[in-house]
Structure formats: structure tokens, C-alpha cells
């Protein structure tokens, strides 16, 4: 794969598009409808551009990142490496891009940091398998990828009979929803495409128009996720302490950068914003057992971006906090309940307890697409349990006797009272969270494009 990143002298302009909408005021229902329609069309066009150019990360210092990846057109030429070919693991970019009109390429995150390999998917079933098998992971990223996968199924069935097309879409939607149940972004993206399907007319004879409508909806989801990442990075940066005479010390858990979320990342997007603002910063990276997302992925992303960091065993975080060597903890979220309870990668809850014990702020950085008002509290968040192999083996090497019983929940739930603030693209939410979340989620899909969000 060609190494990625803005080339010398390249000025990222992606956020100018979003900022133009951020200042729009909606005065009437008619205007609201017009703005939403324009936003969907413009967002779809912007997302196509993001996917075609490999999704460069605009808040990374260009001097630290190599040249841009091939476009969707050049990727198909004889000079470009074929999907599935292993290449040196360099470059810092979104985890997915389009190869052509019918193929989505996913970075195989199971192979990082050793090699960079892209896996092609062409429909919802293949996309669901890639999500389930952790080729792609991270709640915002799998929501975007699920939307594209379902849209690709619609495109592949554009010449089929309406009843057959509907059956394929409904089956694909169900398979995608079940791929990883904890992350609400996945189900939300699928539901959104199926709602667009119903509004267009599931049995419409216009298969090409139907496929185009679902594709535009998927592209809007990608573009909106990019906008959300940029807004969260900016808002989160305002929260970070400013220690005098030394770098800011941040502790992270799991992986929350572009690999997990798209163009910016969530918690790691805030770190990138601080780095881009030339604020001295050092990141403590939990290894994140058992899947080692911190060790394999977060350290890789930080190294690509030139951010100073140190890897530590999960169990060492307590001593680090007790020694006063952490200024703030930043984590993402796979699902936030209506009361602010947060489901995130297993190991997050004990960090929140430790943060409270030692007076360290604990910030959750998550888009509103990760908030589920239909889940009243953390007890109702479904917790995915994964294979025992992830615990008894490390990268194929067995570390426990055969037959050892294993409990392997992929997530845990952090009670809302342990969360200092929740950073969303619609504002910084503070306790009481039920009221703050309800206020942030109120209104139409256009409310996220209202003037710059303030604390709620």
C-alpha cells in the first residue's frame, strides 16, 4: 500500500465544508426540510471524496506523515498493490476506502502492527463477517462500514425483482445487527438505511434509484461521523488541563483513533488535536487485554502521528495514578445509556474507579450516534462475550492449559457517577446526565449543524 497522509504543502480543507453548515440557522419547518435535504446531498458528495482519497487525517502535522494513498481510481491500476497483499504497516488514515463502485476495502486490524493488509467486501454478509471477526472494529467505524455494506447489497441487487431485493436487504440488515451487539452505532446505521429504504419504496421498480438512495444515506453517515469527530476533538481539547513546565499526561484505554472511528477518532482525536495545537503531550497507553488494541493499534497510530507515548500493562495503571502521573483519562464508548452509564472496552470501569479514588478527571468522548436513549441504564446494555481463544492464546501462542475455563466479556459498564463529562459533537455533557443527554439528543438530525455547541 502506498503510504498515506497529506503531502508537503497540502492544506486540509475537509472541515470547511462542515463549518459552512455549522453556522446555518433554521427558522422554519420548510427551511429545515430544505437544509436537511441539502445536507444529505452535500454530505454524500463529501463522503465520496473522503473514501476516494483514503480518508486523510486533517489534524495530523503533515511533516510527520508520508504521502497520500492511491485514489479509488488509481488503486485499480497495475501499479497499485492488490487487496490482500501485505505491505509495511506505515501510514495514518481511515480504516476503509472504496476500491471501485462495488468494492469496499477494509484494513485488516488483526494484522497490525506487523503488516498493512486490506480485505475487500462487496455486500452486507461479507461486511458482517468482517465486523464479527474484528477485521474492522470500533463503534463509529463499524457503523459507517455497516451502512456501506448494506448499500453495496442494494447496488448489487439493482437489477433484481423488487421482492428479491427486499429479501436480500432484510436478511443483510439482520446479519449486520447481530455481528456485534454492544455497539449501538452499528444497529443505528442499519436502521437508518432501512428507514430510507422504506421511504423510497421497498418494492419500487426503480432498482437503480433505490440503490442510489441507500448509497447517499450511507455516504451521509460517513460524512456526519467525520464532522462529529472534528467537533469532539475541538471540544475535548478545551477540557484538557494545562500543566506548567511539563507535558500533559493522558491515559487511554483500547483504541479510539481513526482506525476505530474514521477520519478523526474519538478520545484519540482529542489527543491529536492537542498535538496539532503544539501542546506538549505524553500518552500512557493501556495494552487492553485480551485483544491488545492499545498495544497493537493505539501505539501504532500515535507513532505514525509523532505523538510521544508509553505502553503499560493494564494492571500498572493503578500505580501510575497513585503516583500522580496522570492528568486526565480519555476513553471512547460503544454505547451510552440514557442515564450516562457507559459501555466500553472491558477494563474501562476499573480505570474510572481508580480515577475517582485519585481525583483524576475521567472523560468519555463519544458521538451522539453512540447514545442509546432506548437503554435506560447500564444494566440494559448487552455485553458481548467473545471466544476463549482470545484469552488463552496471544497471537496464536497458547498461554494457558488446554481446557481452561474462560470468561471473556468484551465490554464493561462504567456508572455515570464516575464520569466527569461526556464529550459529544453537540456539546460537553455534565451531570445530571439524563437531562443533559435528553437535551443534546432533542430536535432533528439538523440540530447537529446548529451554531457551535456549548456545554449542556
Number of strands: 18
Quickly count the helices.
Answer: 14
Q: Please state the average pLDDT score.
A: 81
Between the first and last Cα atoms, what is the distance in angstroms?
43 Å
Lateral strand order in the biggest sheet: 8-7-6-9-12-17-18
Portion of residues within helices: 40-55%
Largest sheet data: 7 strands, mixed
Catalogue the unreliable spans: 1-40, 53-81, 443-454
Percentage of β-strand residues: 5-15%
- Structure classification: alpha/beta
How much is the radius of gyration in Å?
21 Å
Morphology call: globular
Briefly summarize what is shown:
By secondary structure, the protein is α/β, with parallel strands linked by helices. The protein has helices at 14-22, 29-52, 124-132, 139-156, 162-177, 184-200, 207-239, 258-261, 267-276, 293-305, 317-322, 348-358, 389-392, 433-441; strands at 87-88, 96-100, 103-107, 115-116, 118-121, 248-252, 281-286, 308-312, 328-331, 335-337, 342-345, 362-365, 371-372, 393-394, 397-398, 411-414, 421-424, 427-429.
Can you characterise this structure?
This protein is α/β, with parallel strands linked by helices. The chain contains 14 helices and 18 strands. The chain has helices spanning 14-22, 29-52, 124-132, 139-156, 162-177, 184-200, 207-239, 258-261, 267-276, 293-305, 317-322, 348-358, 389-392, 433-441; strands spanning 87-88, 96-100, 103-107, 115-116, 118-121, 248-252, 281-286, 308-312, 328-331, 335-337, 342-345, 362-365, 371-372, 393-394, 397-398, 411-414, 421-424, 427-429. It has a 7-stranded mixed sheet with strand order 8-7-6-9-12-17-18, with helices on both faces. It has a 4-stranded mixed sheet with strand order 13-10-11-16, covered by helices on one side. Strands 2-3-5 form a 3-stranded antiparallel sheet. Helix 4 (139-156) runs parallel beside helix 6 (184-200). The longest helix is centred in the middle third of the chain and has 33 residues, at 207-239. The radius of gyration is 21 Å and the shape is globular. Residues 1-40, 53-81 and 443-454 have low confidence and may be disordered.
Amino acid at each position: 500500500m502506498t503510504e498515506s497522509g497529506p503531502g508537503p504543502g497540502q492544506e486540509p480543507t475537509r472541515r470547511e465544508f462542515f463549518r459552512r453548515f455549522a453556522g446555518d440557522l433554521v427558522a422554519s419547518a420548510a427551511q429545515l426540510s430544505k437544509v436537511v435535504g441539502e445536507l444529505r446531498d452535500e454530505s454524500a458528495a463529501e463522503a465520496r471524496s473522503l473514501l476516494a482519497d483514503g480518508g486523510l487525517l486533517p489534524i495530523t502535522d503533515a511533516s510527520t506523515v508520508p504521502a497520500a494513498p492511491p485514489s479509488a481510481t488509481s488503486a485499480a491500476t497495475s501499479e497499485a498493490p492488490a487487496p490482500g497483499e501485505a505491505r509495511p504497516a506505515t501510514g495514518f488514515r481511515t480504516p476503509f476506502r472504496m476500491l471501485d463502485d462495488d468494492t469496499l476495502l477494509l484494513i485488516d486490524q488483526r494484522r497490525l502492527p506487523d503488516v498493512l493488509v486490506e480485505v475487500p467486501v462487496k455486500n452486507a454478509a461479507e461486511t458482517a463477517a468482517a465486523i464479527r471477526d474484528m477485521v474492522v472494529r470500533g463503534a463509529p467505524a463499524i457503523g459507517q462500514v455497516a451502512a456501506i455494506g448494506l448499500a453495496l447489497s442494494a447496488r448489487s441487487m439493482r437489477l433484481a425483482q423488487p421482492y428479491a431485493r427486499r429479501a436480500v436487504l432484510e436478511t443483510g440488515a439482520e446479519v449486520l445487527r447481530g455481528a456485534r451487539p454492544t455497539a449501538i452505532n452499528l444497529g443505528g446505521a442499519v436502521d437508518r438505511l432501512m428507514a430510507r429504504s422504506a421511504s423510497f419504496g421497498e418494492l419500487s421498480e426503480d432498482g437503480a434509484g433505490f440503490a442510489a438512495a441507500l448509497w447517499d444515506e450511507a455516504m451521509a453517515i460517513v460524512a456526519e461521523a467525520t464532522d462529529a469527530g472534528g467537533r469532539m476533538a475541538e471540544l475535548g481539547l478545551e477540557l484538557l488541563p494545562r500543566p506548567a513546565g511539563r507535558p500533559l499526561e493522558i491515559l487511554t484505554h483500547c483504541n479510539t483513533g481513526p482506525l476505530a472511528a474514521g477520519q478523526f477518532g474519538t478520545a484519540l482525536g482529542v489527543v491529536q488535536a492537542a498535538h496539532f495545537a503544539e501542546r506538549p503531550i505524553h500518552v500512557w497507553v493501556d495494552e487492553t487485554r485480551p485483544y491488545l488494541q492499545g498495544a497493537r493499534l493505539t501505539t501504532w497510530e500515535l507513532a505514525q502521528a509523532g505523538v510521544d507515548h508509553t505502553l503499560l500493562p493494564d494492571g500498572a495503571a493503578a500505580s501510575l495514578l497513585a503516583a500522580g502521573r496522570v492528568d486526565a483519562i480519555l476513553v471512547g464508548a460503544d454505547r451510552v445509556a440514557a442515564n450516562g452509564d457507559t459501555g466500553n472496552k472491558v477494563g474501562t470501569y476499573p480505570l474510572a474507579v481508580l480515577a475517582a479514588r485519585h481525583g483524576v478527571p475521567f472523560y468519555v468522548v463519544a458521538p451522539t450516534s453512540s447514545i442509546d436513549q432506548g437503554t435506560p441504564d447500564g444494566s440494559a446494555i448487552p455485553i458481548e462475550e467473545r471466544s476463549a481463544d482470545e484469552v488463552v492464546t496471544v497471537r496464536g501462542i497458547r498461554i494457558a492449559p488446554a481446557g481452561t475455563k474462560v470468561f471473556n466479556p468484551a465490554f464493561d459498564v462504567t456508572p455515570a457517577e464516575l464520569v466527569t463529562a461526556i464529550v459529544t459533537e453537540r456539546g460537553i455533557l455534565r451531570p445530571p446526565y439524563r437531562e443533559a443527554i435528553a437535551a443534546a439528543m432533542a430536535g432533528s438530525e439538523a440540530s447537529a449543524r446548529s451554531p457551535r455547541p456549548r456545554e449542556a
